[in-house]
Recover the amino acids of this structure.
């Protein structure tokens, strides 16, 4: 019985892995680059136009 508990403890404990911070820095740089490129497409891209909203036909308040 004690041997089974010891085996279960060994199986349940996960090994500690040390990750490199360079992968997180690379992912952050990729996300920042994508955000800057998307903003540039919206600002400088051809054919991007902002249209005015159509006028409201009736008042929003019922007692208006």
């Amino acid at each position: 019985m004690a041997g089974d508990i010891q085996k279960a403890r060994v199986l349940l404990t996960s090994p500690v892995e040390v990750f490199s911070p360079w992968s997180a820095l690379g992912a952050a740089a990729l996300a920042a680059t994508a955000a800057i490129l998307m903003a540039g497409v919206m600002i400088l891209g051809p054919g991007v136009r902002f249209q005015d909203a159509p006028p409201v036909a009736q008042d929003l308040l019922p007692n208006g």
